[in-house]
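User: Structure please.
Assistant: Input sequence and predicted structure:
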Amino acid sequence: YEFYKGMVFDEPARNYALQAMKFANVKKCYLVVNKYWSNSSKIIEAAKISANSWHEIDGGQNIVFYYKGH
């Protein structure tokens, strides 16, 4: 949860995703951002840069960001 909070309240930086994957011993990480969040536009624009890929769902109301580990 600490990594998630960092990605949402600090910056959705790739480093947070990599730390979360290392902690959980996995090679994939997903971040879901809901457009109704007050700071969603900032998070979405930054995550588009740091993620490997992203997809809009529910008519663009939710964005799923995919991060791939090493």
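The beta strands are 28-34, 53-57, 62-68.
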